Prior knowledge:
By secondary structure, the chain is an alpha/beta fold. The protein has one domain (3-22, 54-105, 128-317): 3-Layer(aba) Sandwich (UDP-N-acetylmuramoyl-L-alanine:D-glutamate ligase), CATH 3.40.1190. Helix content is 35%, strand content 27%. The strands form 2 sheets. Strands 5-4-1-8-9-10-11-12-13 form a 9-stranded mixed sheet, with helices on both faces. It has a 4-stranded mixed sheet with strand order 3-2-6-7. Helix 3 links the parallel strand 4 (68-75) and strand 5 (98-100). Helix 2 packs across helix 8 (270-283) and helix 6 crosses helix 7.
Amino acid sequence: MTAADLATRLAGRTILIIGDVMLDQFVIGRVDRISPEAPVPVVCFDHEEYRLGGAANVAHNAAALGARVQLVGLVGEEGTAQRLREQLARSGISADNLVADPDRCTTRKLRIVTTRNQQVARVDYEHDAEAGGAIEAALIGRINALAAGANAILVSDYLKGAISRGSANAAIAAGRTHGIPVLVDPKVPHIDYYAGATVITPNHHEAEAVTHMRIRSNADALAAAVRFRERACCDSVLITRGEHGMTLLGPDGEAELAAEAREVSDVTGAGDTVIATMTLALAAGASLVDAARLANRAAGIVVGKFGPATVSVSELRGN
Length: 319
């Protein structure tokens, strides 16, 4: 199946996304001088932008490709949470299944950026303790209620609290119950949470950390994928390797995918695009290899854009 043919089949699939939602704030200005107070640039404010980040950016990517998205995550009860809900609504994504925790803040990344897209500084507002008690139970309840109507489940773990052992186990168990794939964008400290997942998509740094192997070649990447799959107890592994492409290890063999980026502007959120596209492709009936190829094409497009961004079906089709 060609990428163009597959891209036309993505619309209308329902994806259940569980993970760490974030709001990305960009304060943008000009730099003309260095501060007399410290050796840092003085940024003269021009404007600011807000974008969806983390699992919310994954959801945005899936929605941009025509998916019906059900999003489960954690927010606080402050103004940032309201702004995040508004951003989701603008992207056609319901915020009804976000769980509000009065004891935490909504994750927000404030980036100070020049008008030439050079990042000067970043400030993170976060509460990263894992959900527990009634909050974890609320997350699990939403996962169980929504899984029956999904074509695939996606776990987007950023270590900000929404992914606990209980919520991860619930997502994977729901996938088995309903016979649908479960894909995980992982974080190393939670590697034991993902046993039973259909596909896990570590980047090469995460794969090295989990396997204690160095990845410097395609052969190294394949060997690391074999060990990663054994360690994580999952069906398949897709290691994303930046300019070196991707290494896929599935039940039926392996594949090396060369990077497709023609010009790299910003890699922020590229992993979100990869897993959103791959999940949606599998939900549309694609083979593992075809889904990975489409995700690779999407990554090559999105790194040419600034900040967390999305890819359209027409871009995937090459129109």
